[in-house]
Design a protein that fits this description.
Helix content is about 30%, strand content about 25%. It is an alpha/beta fold. The chain folds into three domains: about 5-50 and about 85-150 and about 270-335, FAD/NAD(P)-binding domain (3-Layer(bba) Sandwich); about 160-270, FAD/NAD(P)-binding domain; about 345-450, Enolase-like, domain 1, CATH 3.30.390. The longest helix is centred in the first third of the chain and has 26 residues, at about 80-105. Bound molecules: flavin-adenine dinucleotide. The site of flavin-adenine dinucleotide has 34 residues, from helix 1, strand 2, helix 2, helix 3 and helix 9.
């Protein structure tokens, strides 16, 4: 067998890459990992973690409003963006440092720099060799875990004036006005963040409603709720130009609408990070959507190369990248072939109010299960808000396959929905029936008790998609 520098070379020290590298090194293999930016990847540096800090910072304004309803009063409550940014960045640096330390403890060689494939067993780390030459490293196996990056319409006149989520984490100052283009979860989350921090926020989406792919009741309920929190939602509107003017950025849309703002953020999707990786020289093919083509074990079209996480564009979430990495490690290094099961993966949207979802939407259930579907739906004012007179409503929806009586979808919009859905996901994954949900005694007084007390079936709802 050829003598390689490493048993495994991992490209990308994000959620998937770090987990695979650590496990494999702890199993006694010689492992290196390359990272061109900061260890921790999207999740830790410019995704889930800093975003959640921003959500938590911005939710305080709502908590203060509620608190006033309970008799509290606050004089001069104010938010200081630079103080928040500094604290956030210290925490992100701490977390990234923990990732670096854990790689070191596991015996992984961390190589800072951009890695490019030269052939199926050779990686060049650009400019990191002697005298600025490329450093060349060989490995028996390679794992590509380079993640994704924001996609923006390059041909839109004025797009250079727009930022993406990457820059939103480092704005030098909070704008007075922001326009966010996009209707996916990142767009909706950032709209909530900025609105909560007092920024005049407009969300513009070209489709008929936000959160395409989610249950239609969730989409319409959330659109209404975020409007109650002061976000202006403009649908069916596509950018034609962005122009810098003396007073801000003028956005023009296909239907003749014009909106002036201070900052424009595009959250119009993400694309697999494959550009310039040298995939062709290693025999690694892409699929039709431009992601690395993998089989169910995450193996690419090259025999010794695997890929996990967002670069494969399956379900682009941190826990999924981690589980795919673990399955790769078990399959390749522990003689225990494992496919990560992409079914029933719960997810959350940290909008304000947030969303928690697991399983099928009503539309998907009707399309895929080929039989009758029962729907249970509740909208109510949570106790916490009823006391203060707030008009906010919670939505809870169960989608049940009538033939088997299994709960195949759970959809929640309301406070703590992400926490609730994690537990509901266990029941959905286990295939429990509505009767078994109902046999579970309620916890009172909570919002979640509604999940085990819903009795009335809905008549078939609209199943429109957009
Ligand atoms: P990444 O974490 O993206 O890591 C890839 C790494 O590879 C990066 O560090 C990159 O710099 C490096 N790299 C790329 N190319 C090279 C190269 N050639 N050489 C060296 N290094 C390279 N997921 C959730 O589960 N919950 C959330 O709430 C959530 N919120 C999000 C919010 C935002 C704004 C974004 C953008 C994403 C969010 N995600 C969330 C998604 C989550 O961050 C990703 O699914 C996850 O990070 C994917 O992990 P990964 O290992 O595939 O790639």
């Amino acid at each position: 067998m050829a003598d390689y520098d490493y048993d495994l070379f991992v490209i990308g020290a994000g959620s998937g890459g770090v987990r695979a590298a650590r496990l494999t090194a702890l199993g006694g293999k010689r492992v290196a990992i390359a990272e061109e930016h900061r260890v921790g990847g999207t999740c830790v540096i410019r995704g889930c973690v800093p975003k959640k800090f921003m959500v938590m910072a911005s939710e305080v304004s709502h908590a203060l409003e509620i608190a006033e309803g309970y008799g509290w009063s606050f004089d001069n409550a104010r938010f200081d963006w630079p103080t928040f940014l500094e604290t956030k960045d210290v925490e992100i640096a701490r977390l990234s440092g923990i990732y670096v330390a854990n790689l070191g403890k596991a015996g992984v060689d961390l190589i800072h720099g951009r890695a490019v494939l030269r052939d199926a067993h050779t990686v060049a780390i650009l400019g990191k060799g002697e005298d600025g030459a490329d450093r060349i490293v060989t490995a028996e196996r390679i794992l590509i875990a380079t993640g994704g990056r924001p996609w923006t319409p390059a041909d839109l006149p004025g797009i250079e004036h727009a930022i993406t989520s990457e820059e939103a984490f480092h704005l030098p100052e909070l704008p007075k006005r922001i326009l966010i283009a996009g209707g996916g979860y990142i767009a909706v989350e950032f709209a909530g963040i900025f609105a909560g921090l007092g920024v005049e926020t407009t969300l513009v989406y070209r489709g008929p409603n936000i959160l395409r792919g989610f249950d239609d009741d969730v989409r319409s309920h959330l659109a209404g709720e975020i409007e109650k929190r002061g976000i202006r939602v403009v649908l069916g509107c596509q950018h034609t130009t962005i122009e810098k003017t003396a007073t801000g950025l003028l956005n023009t849309f296909g239907n003749g609408h014009e909106i002036e703002t201070d900052v424009v953020m595009f959250a119009t999707g993400r694309e697999p990070h494959v550009k310039g990786l040298g995939l062709e020289s290693a025999g690694v093919e892409l699929n039709d959507s431009g992601a690395i083509r993998v089989d169910e074990f995450s193996k690419t079209t090259a025999d010794n190369i695997w890929a996990v996480g967002d670069v494969t564009d399956r379900i682009n979430l941190t826990p999924v990248a981690i589980r795919e990495a673990v399955a790769f490690h078990e399959t390749v290094y522990r003689d225990n072939p494992q496919r990560f099961d992409h079914e029933h993966v719960a997810s959350a949207v940290f909008s304000q109010p947030p969303v928690g979802v697991v399983g099928l939407s009503e539309y998907e259930a009707r399309q895929t299960l080929g039989g009758e579907i029962d729907v249970y739906l509740a909208r109510f004012r949570p106790m916490k808000y009823a006391f203060t007179g707030s008009e906010e409503r919670v939505l809870m929806k169960l989608v049940v396959e009538a033939r088997t009586e299994k709960v195949v979808g759970v959809h929640i919009v309301g406070p703590e929905a992400p926490e609730m859905i994690q537990l509901a996901a266990i029941a959905v994954k286990a295939g429990l029936t509505k009767a078994q949900w109902d046999a579970t005694c309620a916890v009172h007084p909570t919002m979640a008790e509604e999940l085990v007390t819903m009795k009335d079936k809905q008549t078939p709802a609209s199943v429109a998609v957009g």
